[in-house]
């Protein structure tokens, strides 16, 4: 028997659309979130320890993402009543790393048919045929996929990195720059390569004020942390 081919959306694609029931009511995705950034993420199953630690962390950081005009939307292939019972258990019983009484207010999608998970390539047979991997999709305010990160079932996500990705994408859009390895707000950003040799030489000669050029193709400039965070709001 031939193995089913799992389609995966690509960076730059329109986010696949769907309607779904969630713990916060029905949604029409991504249309309901136009004008906002969205982190759409999947987890393997309710009532599992890694997923519990992740949902507590997401909920604890939700206000930080909200300040970045970013909506969180979760998904697993469990049913709505399982979602509700699990989130209630998290709030009433689980204390982890100083987090307790954590209420998950962002929507968690019911996907028992795996329709949405399959649209987004979250079911990967090499890992599991019956559970979604830990996929993360960063979707911009016009509904385009801008970045994706996939993790296996056993690996919990790095939430500092998820927040860093959102800020970096917003910074690139706002200031027409790129961000170098390990970039954090306040670090120098990269100026896109010049379009002509004459401009490139000016860059290397340091004639563009504020730039540091290491060669014609590699120039940086400072943007303060305050300017970054104020500019993306």
Descriptive report:
The structure is a single chain. The chain is α+β, with helices and mostly antiparallel strands. The chain is built from six helices and ten strands. The chain has helices at 49-67, 80-93, 115-119, 159-175, 197-204, 225-231; strands at 18-22, 25-29, 37-42, 70-76, 108-110, 134-139, 145-151, 189-191, 212-215, 218-221. The longest helix is centred in the N-terminal third of the chain and has 19 residues, at 49-67.
Radius of gyration: 20 Å
What is the β-strand count? 10
Give the strand content: 15-25%
- Describe the biggest sheet? 5 strands, mixed
Secondary structure category: alpha+beta
Compute the separation of the termini in Å.
52 Å
Mean pLDDT, nearest integer?
91
Helix content: 25-40%
Shape: globular
Low-confidence stretches: 196-200
- Spatial arrangement of strands, main beta sheet: 5-4-3-6-7
Number of helix segments?
6
Order of secondary-structure elements: EEEHEHEHEEHEHEEH
């Amino acid at each position: 028997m031939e193995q089913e081919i799992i389609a995966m959306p690509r960076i730059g694609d329109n986010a696949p659309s769907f309607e779904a029931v969630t713990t916060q009511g029905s949604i029409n995705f991504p249309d309901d979130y136009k004008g906002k950034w969205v982190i759409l993420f999947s987890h393997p199953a309710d009532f599992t320890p890694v997923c519990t630690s992740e949902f507590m962390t997401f909920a604890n950081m939700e206000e930080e993402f909200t300040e970045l005009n970013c909506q969180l939307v979760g998904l697993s292939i469990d049913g709505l009543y399982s979602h509700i019972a699990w989130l209630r258990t998290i709030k009433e019983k689980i204390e982890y790393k100083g987090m307790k009484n954590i209420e998950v207010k962002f929507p968690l999608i019911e996907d028992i048919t795996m329709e949405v998970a399959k649209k987004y390539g979250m079911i990967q047979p090499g890992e599991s045929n019956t559970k979604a991997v830990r996929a993360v999709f960063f979707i911009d305010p016009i509904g385009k996929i801008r970045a994706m990160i996939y993790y296996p079932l056993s690996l919990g996500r790095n939430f500092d990195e998820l927040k860093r990705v959102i800020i970096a994408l917003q910074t690139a859009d706002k200031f027409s720059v790129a961000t170098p390895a390990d970039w954090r707000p306040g670090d120098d950003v990269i100026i896109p390569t010049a379009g002509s040799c004459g401009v490139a030489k000016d860059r290397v000669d340091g004639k563009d004020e504020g730039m540091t050029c290491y060669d014609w193709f590699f120039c940086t400039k400072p943007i303060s942390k305050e300017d970054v965070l104020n500019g993306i709001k």
